[in-house]
Amino acid sequence: MIGRKVLRNNVRSILRYCLTSGLISSLLTGALFLAGMIRGRGRVLPDLAMFAGIGFLFGFLIPLLVQLLFDIILAQRRVRRLPYLSRIGLLVLLIAVAMLAVYLGFGLLLFRRAMWSFGMLGFVGLMTAVVAMAGSLHNSITEFLGTAFFRDIISGKYYTAREERVIILFVDLSGSTSFAETLPAAWFFQLLNDFLYIVEQSVHYHGGTVYKYLGDGLIAYWPAAPANYAKSREAVRDILAELAEQREALATKYWRTLECTAGLHCGPVLIGELGTMRKEIGLWGDTVNTAQRIQSACRTYGVPLLCSLEYLARLRETQPGAAMPAKLFENVALRGKQKPMTLAAPE
What we know:
single chain, alpha+beta, Alpha-Beta Plaits, 2 domains, eight-stranded mixed β-sheet
C-alpha cells in the first residue's frame, strides 16, 4: 500500500515540477521573442504561440528526462551513498544529456536541414537547462527543510510570528528503547528510517506537513481547514494499516514487530521563524504540548490512537452523515495539565 502512495506522491510532484518549468520556459522564450532578440528568424517560426510552445515543451521534457534518469541511477545503492555535492554534479551532467537529447529530437523532427546552423533551439534549450538546474537545487534544499517550510521561509510568511489554528499529530514508535538495547546501532538506525518512511509518506499523501523528527517519532500538522480533520484521521489509519501489512516482513528483518501510538489534537499555535545561522519554522503553544501528552496516554489505555474531544467534535462536524463511534476515557490526568481531560479512541 505504501508503494502506491509513494508512486502517487512522486508522480504528482514530478508533474508539478515539470509543468512549472515548462511555464517558466514558455514565458521566458515568449518574452525574448517579443523583445526582438531573435529578430530575423520569422520565416522559421513566424508565430509567437509556436515559439512559446517550443519553450514549454523544452521546459517540460528536459526536467522530466532528468528526473527519470536520476531516479533510475539513484536506485543503485552506491549512488545513494554519494555526498550531495556529487549528486549535484550528477544532476548537471544529466541536464546536459537531457538538453542534448531534446535538442537533437526537435532538430531532427522539425528542422532537419538547418539544425546545426539554427541556434535558436540551442539557446532555448540552454535557458531551459538553467531553469531545470534551479529546480533541481530547489528539490535538494527542500529535502532538508521540507517543501512547505522552504516556501514559507523564502516568502517570509512567518518572519513575524502569527497565531493559526492547526491539527497536530504526534506519532511515536512503541518499544524503541528495547530496540535500541538489543539491535546493533546501524540496524536500529535503519529501523527508524523504515518506520519514519511509512509515517511521513502517509502524512504527505494526505496533505500534511512533517514539522519535526523526534528520534523515534515525529510531529506533523495540518491547517485546521474542515477537510483536513478527515485527512489527518486517514493518515493515522494508513500508518497503522501499513505497519500491519508489513508486519511479517519487518519482524523477519528486525526480529520484532513494529507498532506505534498516535495522538491528535487541534487548536491555536504560534508559528514563526527561528534562528539566524539556520532558519527553521517553529510551532509553540499548549496545543502542541497537549497533543504529545495525548499520545503518551495511549500506552496507559492500550490503544494505538487517542484524540481530544475537541478534535473528535470537529471531525464529526465535517462528516455529519458518517458513523464515527469512539470509546471515551473520562477524567484523564495528563502530565503538565491542571485539569483532567476526556479523551477518545476512534474506532
